[in-house]
UniProtKB/TrEMBL annotation:
The lineage of its organism: Eukaryota, Metazoa, Chordata, Cephalochordata, Leptocardii. It is found in: Postsynaptic cell membrane. InterPro entries: ANF_lig-bd_rcpt (IPR001828), Glu/Gly-bd (IPR019594), Iono_Glu_rcpt_met (IPR001508), Ionotropic_Glu_rcpt (IPR015683), Iontro_rcpt_C (IPR001320), Peripla_BP_I (IPR028082). The record marks 668 as: Interaction with the cone snail toxin Con-ikot-ikot. This is GRID2 protein. The chain crosses the membrane at residues 541-559, 611-632, 795-818. It comes from Branchiostoma lanceolatum. Keywords: Cell membrane, Disulfide bond, Glycoprotein, Ion channel, Ion transport, Ligand-gated ion channel, Membrane, Postsynaptic cell membrane, Receptor, Signal, Synapse, Transmembrane, Transmembrane helix, Transport. L-glutamate binds at residues 501, 713. It comes from the Eukaryota. Residues 833-853 are annotated as: Disordered.
Amino acid sequence: MKTRETLPLLLLLSPLLFTTVPATLGSTAIGVILDDSAQIDDDALARLFARLDVADDVNVTDEGLRPVVARITGDDPSAAIWQGCRLVEEGVLALLSATGCRSLLVINSVSATLRIPHVATPVRSCPAGVMPGHGSSALPYTFNMRPSPEVHAHALRDMLNTLTWTMVTFLYDHDDGLTVMKNLLEALADDGKPLKAVFLKIEWDTEEDLGRTTDERVRNLLEQGIKPNSFIVYGRSALARTLLQKADKYSLLTRETQWIILQEESVQVPALFATGIVTFFRLTFSRATYSPHSKVHSLYMQDAVSLLRESVSEAHASVAWAPSSPASCGFGPNKVLNEDRKLTRILATSKTTGLSGPIQFDEAGWNNLSRWEIINVEFMAKNGTLAHKIGSWDAENGLQLKEPLFTRHAVTDRLLRVSVVVEEPFVMKRETPAGPVFYGFCIDILDQMAKDHNFRYDIYETPDRKFGVQLDNGSWNGAIGQVLSRHADIAVSDLVISAQREEVVDFTKPYLDYGVRLILKKPVDKEQNWWGFLAPLDGTVWWSILGAVFSVSVLLYLLHRYSPYGSYKQPHGPEKHHSDLKETVWFIIGSLMQQGGEPIQNFISGRILSAFWWFFVLIIIATYTANLAAFLTVSRMDIPVRSVQDLAQQAKIKYGTVRDSNLQSFFRSRSQEGGMYERMWNFMVGSDPSAFVDTTVEGLERVQKGDYAFLWDTAVLEYEKNRKCDLIIIGDPFYKGGYGFAMPRGAPYRDDLSMTILRMQGSGHIEKLQTRWWTTNSTCSDEEATMVETTKVEFVGMAGVFAVLLMGCALSVIALFLELAWHLFVTRPRDTPDRHSPAEIPPPQLPNGDLFV
């Protein structure tokens, strides 16, 4: 049975439940009705009244306000009406309640029926229906310290009108949430912004029930294929805290999701490994005595007692005021009404400010003058949270935002500590009387980031001047170590993005490509090699070409010899010509030298073989010519090594890289796979003196002294060879990747900084900076500044053309057999004369040779 339906019955039975007690409490008694959820004992309540009495300047009476406490168990309407009537008949000036919504409803009815002023501080927000209205009076008798649910709906409406939501998941734990959401959806529809909603009611009594129920409801929602990204939470603080924990568990608290939590209580935000933003819509508390750990309900109680104290003081100060006789809950003629309305009028027109904020009641008795603050809380994974107030709301001024909802403030207006490693041209340092000044390619990018996101930075050089590797004890040194220890918010330099580093820090998007090459001291011009013309092709290829010349020559001779249409089968005559072996060899060599050759092949099998040979010659000559040009280009200097493979196969030139760098870690890890990298790592580790250097500058100095190759970033080497003209870069890049800025894991500003990099790349700004720092101030000519690897053409690369030639040989042999068959079965029978033809009978000859006639 509904509470509202049982109210008349309770009022009807109330005279039978108790008897009237004469008024003996005096003119300062306040009836206080508490249920067990109020969590305030008699001593605390007495101290509250006493503290307020001492604090005020004017005494009500010599005794002051006195609380008369009545307690009920749970949200029990029947017990509430019993205690309410009992207190009224004992002669209290007013009622003060802290109960559940069902009990509040019947106490409101008692107050309105008997015209007793009632100040309500419900333990949680209640539906609008708990306020019965004025009845036959122009004044309300119940004054609710909490705002109306319509205020919540109005505030949410103003907030959602600034967003583009089309669907929302509404999570609540008591029925007034439905009222709020119903009013909200209707208002948005009137605004032309209809919103679809999924409702999830989470009923709970204990926090253990709350955790289990919340987990089940969220999991069931996801199992239905619904993964929402917009949420509104309306309920007690424990509900909000638990929902955030479950949202993190089910990946619903990410950068793609948006949460609004309407909560009067302060929510203790749990530590989560999340990256989302939660907007809290909560009451603004105006007194400095408020603590974030204070219960909002206790603040309402203090404000209610203070309000009653001031109102009673004002009533006593008026002329000839005396409270009326006690009212009675009797039925019919036994009912006695409170005819004095002085205190009620004072409460209805009161306007003050308490711990919970402004206090002023509307015509229905709601305290709707409350002010709310809007706070963005950004989750930064393991780095905690960052709270930022972005606006406020009140019924008079509406929504006032300094910036849009869900705006990230992880970088804006912050001072970031930046650790750098000096490495030209990425980061360079200039000493000044005011201290070191850092500049360079990376600093230009950092300045653009600071401009885009309105943050400041304090820059310092990494103490050990290292980029950072993981040490044997598991810790990190260098710039990476500075980030991990939280001494730095960002590490800025030519930091290579690697899998090992990504496990401990986050990186921005790559701002520049990375690759490793080697740099040597430029050698003097070498002596000319008489046999250098053979260098473009591998020895196997040369021997294969000679074999092809001999094989094709022999095959062409055999075709001439056995083809019925070859030179050996032609009719006798004065110009008869036989293509013997020396003739076919001459023809093949002449074709190879692109000089032509005789004789012309006038039979099909010979022409097929010649055509395939000419194709073979075309490819061979083109390949040789192209590679010869490359060899002549790079062969003017005596380059001892032309690639990292050559470097690994020799022991004369020492080579190494920077100690405690990402490249050193790369060689160490790849050495476990064996092969070239194992040889190189063992060579570097076993070198004496050490092949490793502490800085890039030291490595380049060793290169300039000779007999040392320095393996390092291509970008740095390109910059150095443009300024040190005696250096040359060798080989193609290997171990390719990208450079990025490092920051703590889960840093919320990573995506913002990455977006700046992407915009700079898209606009060509990065290219302009590269030109400025790498090319503009170059002091060396481009002649032979970079040595690329030039390799001989091996047989594997030419196997295809030899296969085509072999195919041509096979086709020519097949054509030979076809020619023989044609001649045997077609041409020869037609050309053979009849044995009986007179024309075929030779004339008889005499012994001396004369013809016989």
